[in-house]
Amino acid sequence: MRFIDVVMRRHKEGLVGMTYTLANYLARYNITVNCVVPGRIMESPSELDFAREKQSLILPLGRIGSTAEVVISNTKRIMRPQKAIREAMFKKGIRWVRNMATTAQQLSSERARFPFQLSDEIIKRVGKRMDGATTWRITHPNGTDVLGKIGDVPTPGSGIKRYGERRGEGNNRPFPQGCHNPVSSKEANGVFVLEHTLPMQAKYVGVPLTRFDKPVKVFVENNRMVRFEGGLEAKRLRRFYESLAPQVGDDVWSVCGFHAGISPKARVYESRERFPEAWVEGPHNSSRMVHCHLGAPTTREHDYPFMTHLSCFLGEGATVYIDGEKLYDEGHFTFLDDPETRKLAAQYGDPDTLLSEVTLQA
Ligand SMILES: [Fe+2]
Is residue 102 part of a domain? Predict the structure, then answer.
């Protein structure tokens, strides 16, 4: 063993120990402390020969890691401004493992500990239902009632080729898993009543980060948003789409599609006011929550830093019909009751425990 390896190991152990100590001490102030401790990483091109010589002998991966992998694999969002990075990394075969659990509570939660293969399989099987279906309908006690047809292919830009596909096989691999693959829409008619959008987008649109003061009603005709009703938020949403129209065209008014959480264990641990970005992981991934994508699929070049559709949330209690059959029933993910799902879950533990839905608020 080289002296440098001994030193590196000591440094890493010290780093982990320091992280535990700081995390214990700072938890009382709601401050989390995390560290990344990668394996051997190539420091410069001059290491290349050494790396080639040794890699197949000593490293489980068969090669030395790159600095890019350390940064990218631990990054939740590589959005529009970093598009070139994402494309370069996919070209090199580097997967993007999106860390969706960014606080200590989330990382140690039942959601993060839910078997990844099981959530991946649930996503695939829900998608297969979509692959063979024709119509969708979403209703909610808040007045939402929209009926549409399922688009032929998943939303362009979603990174999947069909609905019944495992996220764990693609380039974009969220961990832990959150939603089923987004379903694209056509010929939708009705009205969505919306409570909030994603905090990261809300600040660009100019609406409250976590809850609209007044729900926004979006009227839809033939898959196009035709009217917005509500308070200031309704005006700002309309203005947001108007501002994008010169760049992305008429598609900006379309109902891109919808999807819902598949995790029976997703919870809210954070204050929505103090930690909106972390808080939204609960509503986004919970099997009790449905959200729609309103706006253009991400197919055209544009200056806006995020996607050109907004993720808009309906609140708990939505019912989703696929070809007239309830996939979500007043906020309950009926797929979890399916005998096939229970049989599958039994491979990983007690199905009653694994598949029982927790309340959104911890
Ligand atoms: Fe979404």
Answer: no
pLDDT value at residue 30: 63
- Both 133 and 87 in one domain: the answer is no
Tell whether 7 and 81 lie within a shared domain. Answer: yes
Q: Which domain holds residue 288?
A: 110-355
User: What are the backbone dihedrals phi and psi of residue 307, each rounded to the nearest 5 degrees, phi first?
Assistant: -70, 155
Residues 86, 205: one domain? no
* Residue 153 tokens, joined: 């292919």
pLDDT digits (tens, 9 = 90+) for 65-123: 666 666 655 566 667 777 777 788 788 777 777 888 877 788 889 999 999 999 999 99
Measured in residues, the chain has a length of 362
CA–centroid distance, 182 to ligand 1, in Å, is 7
Low-confidence ranges of the chain (pLDDT < 70): 1-9, 29-32, 38-78, 155-159
CA of 258 to the centre of ligand 1 (A): 7
Q: Could you give the CA distance from residue 349 to residue 358 in angstroms, rounded to a whole number? A: 17
Q: Is the domain of 173 the same as that of 149? A: yes
Calpha distance 23→238 (Å, rounded): 43
Same structural domain for residues 92 and 125? Answer: no
- Cis peptide before 176, with omega less than 30 degrees from 0? yes
Instruction: Tell me the pTM.
Output: 0.80
Cα separation of 262 and 118, whole Å?
A: 11
Between the CA of 183 and the centroid of ligand 1 the distance, in Å, is 10
Q: Is residue 47 part of a domain?
A: yes
Residue in the structure block whose two tokens are 């708990």:
316
Ligand 1 centroid – CA 57 distance (Å): 43
